[in-house]
Amino acid sequence: MERNSKSVGSHIMAITLIVLLVLFSASIIFFGILFGTVGFFHISNSSYDSIWSVCLFILLLSFVSGFLELFEYLLKIIITGISAQHKVTVLLKYGVELLFLYGSLSIVDDWMESISLSSYSKLFFAILLLIIGNIDSLQKKKHKNK
């Protein structure tokens, strides 16, 4: 009987440690994104009212870009079917992705009165998000060529 209670206690301890580890990892990722965005706002001379407005900006940007990603995916399928050359197709796909990223940034910037981004800041942020979003595919191509 005593052995069983130690087993239950060790399972509870293990589950608690795993949950704390997941929460700690998620908070590090969230604060990294948050402070990276705040740093970008400082570099690009953009203005925001509070740190909560930046949190809301990140949340709205993920929802809007997630919704627009459906249309982006459909347009990429159409481009793949129409274009015959591979290089043109890749450039058009990156162009469409950049256009939708810029569009989602513009929509969120217009919705939020507490954040003000210039057109150059939106373009630079969209290019930065495009590069970050495609790093894994670029790494796969680099290793595939070796």
UniProtKB/TrEMBL annotation:
Keywords: Membrane, Transmembrane, Transmembrane helix. The keyword Transmembrane applies. The chain crosses the membrane at residues 12-38, 50-71, 91-108, 120-138. InterPro entries: YrvL (IPR025912). This is Regulatory protein YrvL.
